[in-house]
Fold these 4 entries.
Entry 1:
Amino acid sequence: MKITIHNGILDLKPGMFARGEVILSVHKDVPVIPKDTIKTNDGKQYVYIVDNLHAAEREISSGPAMGGLIEIVKGLTPGEKVIYSGTVKKGDLLKIISEE
């Protein structure tokens, strides 16, 4: 990639460098969750969600990642509660202590 930067007031000096990102697209109303929330089994990705105060498995498909977060393109809708920490298995009764 090549860019042109106008340096009319000579703020940029030889040897300086910059780092940036190019945003190719913006997705709205798409769930984004921490990467380490995703489990893998037999090549399939899934997360645990809260379903009527019980843990349930939900198969997902992930998309682009940035930092520690990853976009979910299939399997979750915005606002669904994903279990982030703790050890749970399918069907466990849950007590919600934080909804952050």
Entry 2:
Amino acid sequence: MRPSACRGRGSPSMSRDWFSTISRPITRSTPTDAACERRPVSRLADPAALTRWMQLHLAVLTGQPSETISVDEPFRTFDLDSLDAVTMALEMEKALGVDISPEMFLNGDATIAVIADRMVAA
């Protein structure tokens, strides 16, 4: 989704503001009014909800449908660059109130499921 698609519909013009509004699988099609709505994200204490949230955000970064992103696949397999890793970490910090290192998304065998379990346990 391009930020310009939300302009004129009363939504924020910043490209990453709509990250926290995601409540359904992401596709690279023309956005609907519903996709441009703002919905607050509450702190996620449920591993299943957190894994889904990360799937949706990773889908936006990679351009893949969220339902094709495995929670057991290491982040390194998604070919994230350093900007993607920083974006993912900042969005998690902003929406969830947790500190997470961008390196976690680039190095090692960290998966969505592993990170979600660690964050909920913390």
Entry 3:
Amino acid sequence: MARKTIFQKLHDTEACHAVCIAQYPLGFKDAFIVMMRTDVNKLNLYGFEEDEENHTLMTRDLNDVEYAEFKRREKLYQKTMHSDVGRVYELKSNGFRAWYKSKKSRTRRKKAV
């Protein structure tokens, strides 16, 4: 059986994630996936690194083949942010931003109790 790609795994499980595409002044692009640490561990995904600014998030850079796969599946995503520094896409069926905000507020409530 062929090994599943990262996007096949994410879509099969409907895992909450965002795809970020950073744009640099000289025309370079950097694409990566952002997910919650708990989801990365639960799905046993490889290649993710802890985000330097927020330790509950993990990121994974996309290579050229994975970026091309994202572009083929782009219709499954909605653009949630677009600026001169880049774009952020999230699944239409499972938005990362709303999920992350609700998770963050639940965590704050637990700490307050």
Entry 4:
Amino acid sequence: MLNSVDLSFNFFSGEIPIAIRNLSHLTSLNLENNILSGPIPDLKLPKLRYLNVSFNNLNGSVPFSLQSFSNDSFIGNMQLCGPPLPQCSAILPSPSPSFPLSPLPLLPNDHQKNSSKKLTIGVIIAIMVGGLALVFLLAIILLICILKRKDSESGELTKRKVSSVGRDEKREEYSSGIQEAERNKLCFFDSCSYNFDLDDLLRASAEVLGKGSYGTAYKAVLEDGTTVVVKRLKEVVAGKKEFEQQMEIIGRVGHHPNILPVRAYYSKG
């Protein structure tokens, strides 16, 4: 989840996008020293603890939901008023010609042309929101896959226990050993030609690719040189039947340019 956004000193122009209010877990927002204009939107971010929109070209009154922040959060905006700044008058005075609306230095014409080509702050926010949504979707799919595998193994274990009733103790110990070996097997999709098990993965050299709120991704190189990416989830909350259904759907999905194909899955009962 995105907790902090710092886009200061980037010469962004335009208005502050109202889409920022969709980042409900945001605790810090720093937009100081840009060329932002227009009024400040009523963000209504309940977890926001730090705000800085100083030294821009913002105007109008400070929204009620942001009036609890200090004067330093809004200074450098000559046409901005209302608590914690001075009260708004009926007619805002024209800015003195001897002072610019923003303390930012005037840019040469070439620099202004180059800065106009940069991404606006709205596009940056949209990219971040879209990226978070994609990560969340992938995590949910992997979570469902693990749960389906876990429920499948639970059902198989129950069947083995029922079929072993009436056998002698030696036979039960032998059967138990077979079941333990089965738990180390990965469930591969029909289209996958790989042939390795959990022990092979545990012996492989591993490199952490990234960590998220749902688990950690590793790059594993097997003893035969095969390279795979392993996603280990922290928690599983879905049922067995739902997990199996989702895995069947994933197995039928073709290649996607932005998503690695799922080859196998494993869940410890």
